[in-house]
């Protein structure tokens, strides 16, 4: 089979026929019936029976949601899939209504009654999930009001998120070069912005910025209304901070978040030295926004899809044979959508199918070393889902912050192996820069997103923000996060970044830095312990859906995440790469690269 055909995923084993599949329509209708039957039995069925049925319905909704997300990502103009997503929202609203009714039941129990239920042997697989719901229910509105919020969200809150996807689907970038015209999807254009040719990436970046600016008048109310909905709901619940929900979702404390960001801020000075040295090697006085992610030089090696596959499988296998075997299976079964073609959304993701017990990876592969890292990153997500097979569905629902642990860990395995095999000092330096660049993203770019969103919510409490307000807020956040080290910034980043428009997950930023540092600390231990760490790693991953992050770290690593020690240990590993780069880069001039 050719590289090209291997780079297109196969979704037929989940639901044959894509968005026109009669199977998915039937599956969704059966799910609706199950939810309706469960609604009728909520007052008469046993608590155990209700939870078991809820778990089954949750898995079915997840299955459909993953499938439709795959279809829309691979073809942003798939209108049928978008219509099915709207129907799915209605089913999910009914599911949420039943969960709210369960919460109301839990609130009616006194402490002794709840403790007796939680201690019952038949509740073993639901104990963490049920206890978590009982605690969170205390901080929410009465059941009928929470249900109303969910219902109104179908045509309000969630619809604003859908609008972003509609806009991206119609957007494209036109390039004129050497008398030729090229039309790029936003995903293709995003990949081009890492070009080694500075003039090319600056040209594409300016067109990119201008393209988003043209849509800003639609994206500005979209972002404002998403935030306005959340703030109204938070006020009704008595939540003073917009971080209350994301911290609950990520099962972590404010103390842990502050310890992590404090450590990040303390370690930025060395990264600023790196940016200054990178600018020298790029032949500029100071890096612009589009220089930050740019490759330092031209990699002599471009990777075919098969070469990327072989490299990843080999290095995964060295760490853990099961990990390598699973990665090979993902390629063989065509669980990966990697083809570089128009019509795809930007970025990459990995999604699971709990009923089919499968996974799918989405990205756009064009042969760069960065693409290989992205592929390894997403396969790390897939392996995380793989090792949790056999667990009850509610125990597999791990949060985003620990989800980024497995992906970043996998990326580090391949990145280190690629550097070790590079015999040419120039190529090694380029690869090392690529690795350090990821640290810059996690310490600075992600921090800028967090600062923007934090400040945006505070401003939004006082009213709607205009396009210029958002541009200024975004630019200032970037300046603060990068300590004014850049010569230019990305004012319309707030418009271009999908993460700000994902209605299901507010503050889709700090979990990336958490996962990066958490996995870096784990990876340092893995290197110290060798092959024996492989099984410990799998055990840790299997617990990510049934522990908060503080308990997870305490049990498996013996560390306290609310203190700076572990975070600094992880940061030291990142800074070690920076120091190595600064030592080795002094032997090169811009003309050498």
From TrEMBL:
Q: Which cofactor does it need?
A: Zn(2+)
- Any note on cofactor binding? Binds 1 zinc ion.
Ranges that cross the membrane: none
Instruction: Give the Oligopeptidase F N-terminal domain ranges.
Output: 106-171
Judging by the UniProt lineage, the source's domain of life is Bacteria
Q: Does the keyword ATP-binding apply?
A: no
Q: Which GO terms describe its biological process?
A: proteolysis
Give start and end of each Peptidase M3A/M3B catalytic domain.
193-571
Q: Which family does it belong to?
A: Belongs to the peptidase M3 family.
The protein, known as: Oligoendopeptidase, pepF/M3 family
Instruction: Tell me the organism.
Output: Alicyclobacillus tolerans
Higher taxonomy: Bacteria, Bacillati, Bacillota, Bacilli, Bacillales
């Amino acid at each position: 089979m050719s590289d090209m055909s291997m780079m297109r995923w196969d979704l037929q084993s989940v639901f044959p026929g894509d968005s026109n599949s009669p199977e998915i329509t039937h599956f969704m209708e059966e799910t609706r019936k199950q939810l309706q039957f469960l609604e009728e039995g909520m007052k008469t069925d046993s608590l155990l029976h209700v939870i078991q049925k809820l778990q089954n319905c949750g898995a079915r909704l997840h299955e459909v949601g993953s499938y439709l997300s795959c279809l829309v990502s691979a073809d942003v103009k798939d209108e049928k899939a978008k219509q099915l997503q709207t129907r799915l929202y209605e089913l999910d609203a009914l599911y949420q209504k039943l969960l709210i009714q369960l919460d109301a039941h839990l609130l009616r129990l006194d402490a002794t009654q709840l403790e007796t239920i939680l201690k019952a042997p038949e509740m073993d697989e639901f104990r963490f999930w049920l206890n978590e719901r009982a605690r969170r229910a205390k901080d929410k509105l009465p059941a009928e009001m929470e249900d109303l919020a969910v219902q109104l969200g179908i045509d309000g809150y969630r619809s604003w998120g859908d609008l972003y996807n509609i806009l991206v689907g119609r957007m494209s970038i036109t390039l004129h070069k050497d008398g030729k015209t090229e039309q790029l999807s936003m995903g293709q254009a995003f990949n081009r912005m890492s070009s080694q040719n500075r003039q090319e990436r600056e040209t594409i970046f300016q067109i990119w910025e201008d393209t988003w600016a043209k849509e800003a008048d639609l994206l500005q109310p979209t972002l404002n209304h998403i935030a306005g909905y959340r703030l109204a709901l938070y006020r009704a619940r008595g939540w003073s901070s917009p971080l209350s929900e994301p911290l609950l979702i990520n099962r972590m404390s404010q103390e842990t978040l502050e310890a992590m960001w404090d450590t990040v801020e303390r370690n930025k000075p060395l990264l600023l030295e790196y940016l200054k040295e990178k600018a020298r090697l790029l032949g500029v006085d100071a890096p612009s926004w589009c220089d930050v992610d740019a490759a330092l030089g031209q990699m002599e090696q471009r990777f075919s899809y098969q070469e990327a596959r072989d490299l990843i499988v080999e290095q995964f296998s060295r760490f853990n044979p099961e990990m390598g075997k699973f990665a090979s299976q993902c390629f063989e079964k065509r669980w990966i959508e990697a083809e570089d073609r128009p019509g795809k959304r930007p970025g990459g993701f990995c999604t699971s199918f709990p009923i089919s017990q499968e996974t799918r990876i989405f990205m756009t592969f064009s042969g760069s070393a960065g693409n290989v890292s992205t592929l390894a990153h997403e396969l790390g997500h897939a392996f995380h889902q793989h090792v949790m097979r056999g667990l009850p569905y509610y125990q597999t629902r791990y949060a985003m912050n620990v989800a980024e642990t497995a992906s970043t860990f996998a990326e580090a395995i391949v990145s280190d192996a690629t550097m070790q095999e590079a015999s040419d000092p120039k190529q090694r330096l380029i690869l090392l820069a690529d690795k350090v660049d990821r640290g810059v993203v996690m310490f600075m770019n992600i921090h800028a997103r967090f600062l923007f969103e934090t400040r945006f919510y505070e401003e939004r409490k006082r009213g709607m923000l205009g396009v210029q307000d958002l541009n200024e807020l975004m630019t200032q956040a970037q300046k603060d996060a990068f300590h004014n080290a850049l010569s230019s910034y990305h004012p319309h980043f707030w418009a271009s970044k999908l993460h700000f428009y994902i209605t299901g997950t507010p503050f889709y930023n700090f979990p990336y830095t958490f996962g990066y540092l958490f996995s870096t600390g784990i990876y340092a231990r893995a290197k110290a312990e060798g092959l024996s760490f492989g099984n410990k790693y799998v055990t840790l991953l299997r617990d990510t859906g049934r522990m908060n992050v503080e308990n997870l770290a305490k049990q498996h690593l013996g560390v306290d995440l609310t203190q700076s020690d572990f975070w600094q240990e992880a940061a030291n590993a990142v800074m070690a790469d920076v120091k190595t780069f600064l030592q080795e880069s002094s032997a090169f001039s811009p003309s050498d690269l």
